[in-house]
Amino acid sequence: MSDQTTETPAPEADVHHLEQQRRANRDAAAELGFRPYGGRTALADRAVSLAGAFDAYDDAANVAFSGRDEAKTGDEQDTRPEVVVTGRVMLRRPSGKLVWMNLRDASRESFQIAVSKADCDEKSFGLAKTALDLGDVVVARGRLMKTRKGEVTLWVTELDLASKSLAPPPEKWAGLSDVETRYRKRYMDLYANPDSMRTFRQRSEIVSAARRVMTERGFIEVETPMLQPLAGGAAARPFTTTMNALDLTLYMRIAPELYLKRLLVGGMPRVFEINRNFRNEGVDKQHNPEFTAIEAYQAFGDYHSVMDLSEAIVRAAARVVAGETGAEGLTLPFGDLSIDYAQDWPRITYAELFERALGFPMTDVARAREEAPKHRIKTTAEDGTPLDDVWIVNELFEEVAEKAIDPSVPTWVMDYPAALSPLTRPKHDDPTIAERADLFIAGMEIGPHYTELNDPDVQLAKFQEQLSGIDDEESTFRNLDEDFIEALKVGMPPAGGMGLGVDRLVMLLTNSQTIRDVILFPLLRPAD
Q: What's the pTM value of the predicted model, to 2 decimals?
């Protein structure tokens, strides 16, 4: 292949003067013989991470080299490790015939290299001295030594330019602090803010830990449709689209639940999926229109078995983060809270929590209707039709009782009203109560857990009941999935099912106060 490079187009006339200077430095690098946007090279193929280079430093070899016989020549006495690194230039300090630079990559925030005119070729020194800017990506080869101040340093013998940065770095590398810019330009946030890089690396490790727990327990990972003919599995406003080829209205999935249950019918005993769900609703610190969830179903389990599963997942994920941060035990911070994930997690019923918080039983619906207006909770639909008692009771529960849970203690709330959970098996001794549990940590609901309903006749009645007794807006987000009823007629084994919100779990474990800090590219309003 030819080494000739494509001629770079001339910039627009209104290019900022700082970018113009960088373009001039790009031309200067090209004149020195460098390709400003690099490519795969034999040198780069040998590169190790900056953390790997730091760990490769050999103090004994450095001491031996410092005390070598100066009368001898050659490199046979130099046993200091030679490494190749790549990184973005974060700091550059020219000092006569020596240029000091600090590099950063995903493994290390700062690693010092030194380019000496006496110890590298003229071309490499010219690049370091006159043509580099902060933000440039470079490849450097050299031996590892330690300065008089005790800093491990790569003493460069060869330097190459991998990518020229035309954009000035944010805030002199103090960190990209403007929140809106961080979310819109995550590519800058990641290299300017090591904390952001650390958060997203930990997110990957948290998901991996969850996947290990699932597979070790015999769960099979599957993928189910993102585009669905019915918006099912949960009550939420869907995103709607059209498939032109079939002139078919489709919905971005709200949840994978009904498809995963179909797999239980087909004979898969334990299934799970880690993937995106979509809900066309509000955006706040805990909600993004697309979010990641772990959803799993276990044949011949119940809500207790999947609660145990989720505890194992959360503890495994907490163990990964604690090990990296050096936290004591499994105690991790979240804002002002200190949450011990190793402690026993209390399990309290919905009814107990409701009465403890409001001072009267949830069965006293007359009292609930009296209390509702005090908390700005409506009791009738837009046309004046009274709303069902259960919806009023649940609004009070969410507004008052949930806030009474100790945010520093992971807590299970169990046994919800059956009318709220039409896909959940009712208790044998009380069909008004469903075997459902929700996990709450730090004031956030992390995920619902169920004993699944598998009687097709009862399920059909529950679907129909779900579509009545609620206001018009709410009812538009609910559907009767007739094919799912047909699947249940084939026979689904008794099962436990669970869902965990990955984004919220990552928020908790990484001490991130908003969901936008743990989603690489959160949805934002268009920039002005």
A: 0.89
